[in-house]
Design brief:
With 271 residues, the chain is mainly β. The protein is 7% helix and 49% strand. The protein has one helix and 20 strands.
């Protein structure tokens, strides 16, 4: 009787021992709530016109490098210009992503990094100055768009109320109160559920606990639809929507918070 009982128990004990032996290697796990951290750098720190500038970010989560970011790019522009350029970054190693760009003209510039990794989106604006090369005239304070530059990271470009960055449907708007990075689904088709998302920043910090609504309408139509967008992570607001017909739409993002009442419009194409 005892022998028969051990014959039944022994295989189960052996299976447990084998499972324990197979789990000796530690697994790299991250808490879903742990934010992705980004450290930005620019080389050279004081570029001259004609220099090739290297934009770089090191992405980590809980102190460990993030090598699987789904999107990293740098959006940069000269102060006063409405045209912004977006440069995709290339992964190097140990959470490092870089992009290189030649800057031909002296002046005051801004660069935004955009990092999407592990369900988090992070962005921040940094000002930098390009000085005139030896023997070149400095045109920083002349021309139609030139104006005093404060050098403050929180300075907002008042000449560009909104624009489309052209990076896979992402758009980025600029306003005196908040910055918005509008990120709809890559490809939106009529009558199919799609995602609308916006990352809201205020004074270079994620704006949390705001009331955000999407107002959208098809071009040429009077009927406007409204959609509440709950906060999915600090500063990120998302909602699902199904557009009734294909065509060109406008999405107006409304943001309300203490002492803030802002809105920006973004174009959207539905196939």
């Amino acid at each position: 009787m005892v022998t028969k009982r051990w014959a039944l128990i022994f295989p189960a004990v052996l299976a447990l021992l084998l499972a324990a032996c197979g789990s000796d290697e530690p697994e790299s796990t991250f808490s879903p709530s742990a934010p992705v951290e980004v450290k930005f750098s620019l080389e050279p720190s004081e570029p001259k016109s004609g220099d090739t500038v290297t934009f770089a970010v090191t992405v980590t989560q809980e102190g460990q490098p993030v090598d699987d970011a789904s999107e990293v790019n740098f959006e940069w522009w000269k102060e006063g210009d409405e045209q912004h350029k977006t440069v995709p970054a290339t992964f190097q190693k140990d959470g490092l992503y870089i992009a290189r760009q030649t800057v031909d003209e002296p002046g005051s510039y801004y660069v935004y990094y955009h990092v999407t990794a592990r369900d988090f989106h992070s962005m921040k604006r940094t000002p930098f100055t390009v000085v005139a090369a030896d023997g070149e005239a400095d045109t920083n304070d002349t021309g139609e768009h030139a104006h005093e530059h404060s050098g403050d990271a929180g300075h907002t470009d008042s000449h560009a109320d909104e624009h489309e960055s052209g990076d896979s449907g992402h758009a980025h708007g600029h306003d005196s109160q908040v910055d918005m990075h509008f990120a709809p689904s890559e490809s939106i088709r009529a009558s199919e559920e799609a995602s609308l998302a916006v990352h809201v920043m205020h004074e270079d910090q994620a704006l949390s606990k705001a009331t955000v609504r999407f107002e959208y309408w098809r071009d040429g139509e009077q009927l406007h639809h409204f959609l509440d967008a709950p906060e999915s992570q600090p500063g990120m607001y998302e909602a699902k929507v199904s557009f009734p017909a294909s065509g060109s739409y406008t999405v107006k993002v409304h943001v309300e918070a203490p002492d803030i009442h802002d809105h920006q419009e973004f174009p959207l194409s539905v196939q």
